[in-house]
Specification:
Length: 138
Amino acid sequence: MDLNRNIAVLTIRLLLGFIFLMQGFGKVFTMGVENVYKADFFYGTFKDLLPDFIISATAYYTSYIELVGGLLLVLGLKTNYALYALSSVLIIVTFGHGLAEPIWNLSHVMYRAILLISLLLLPRAWDKFSIDYLIQKK
């Protein structure tokens, strides 16, 4: 039973980590954050609702937090801090989607939120396949 718990936590952490890592990687290295900021789905949606500096800061913040937070989750390093930062991204995205369109497709956030909240609620001791566990064990 312990192994099942350990594998379950590992699976949730890796799934969520790779989702955020690849999303952040795409925004930072494939599209470029400046292009994310200028995209219709970002700047085009919010230009009449928010000041430019908030739109720009949000594009940079969410893109880099997704990249770094996702990598930290994949590695199992500073997991709680990564989860806290990624929680802020999900809250920002939820607010932004709701601001842009009151009735929107929740699939952008909901499954990530479920995985993230699960990791926050599960005992850290079950995450034995992580760098955090190795550091704590010493």
